[in-house]
Each structure stands twice: as structure tokens, then as C-alpha cells.
Amino acid sequence: MILYGPDAVSYQFAQIGNDLKAQAFLGELDSHPVIGGLIDSTSNYEVEQDEMMRTSGVQLTPEMWLVKLLMGSIDSSYDTKGKSSNFLVIVNRIGADLFHFADEK
Question: pTM to 2 decimals?
Fold first, then answer.
């Protein structure tokens, strides 16, 4: 009897620092044909910002990066590497809501 589906467990890896070997390793995990669907890896802010600008022409904000970092392994639509305009709409909306809530405290 199967109790959980294939997306029951996901893992988030966040790079701290700017080591290129670590960045390459996390990229390999994220795109691995067997386990890549279970993993979201997020590079440091500057690397993610450059990648989003290159792939979508959009400037990644710190709020968008934090939302991707927190949500990437939970909801695969956030693990798009900025290639989807839907990703940008969702991240902007949620990021604005989160930071508006924090400002009220």
C-alpha cells in the first residue's frame, strides 16, 4: 500500500558563499535525471540575480530571492529558475505580502 505520492518529500539546498565548485555541485543535484525533481537548489543572491536577468530580463529583488529560497522545494512552480512569467507574478505577489506584513509588526 502506497501512502504518499512521489512529491511527498523534497529538499532545499541553499548555497552560502560563492564557491564555484559548490555551485556546480548543487546545479548537478538540481538537474539530476533521477533525484532532480526532489531537489531545489538556490545559489547566493548575486548568482541567482544574474541568472534571472540572463534568462528573463527581469531584475531579481531580495524579496523574490527569499520567496524562491523558502518555497522552491515546496511548490515546483517556484523552481523555474526565473524562466516563467507566472513565477515572477507569484513571487512578486507573495514577496510583497510577506514584507508588508513584516512592516506592520
Answer: 0.65
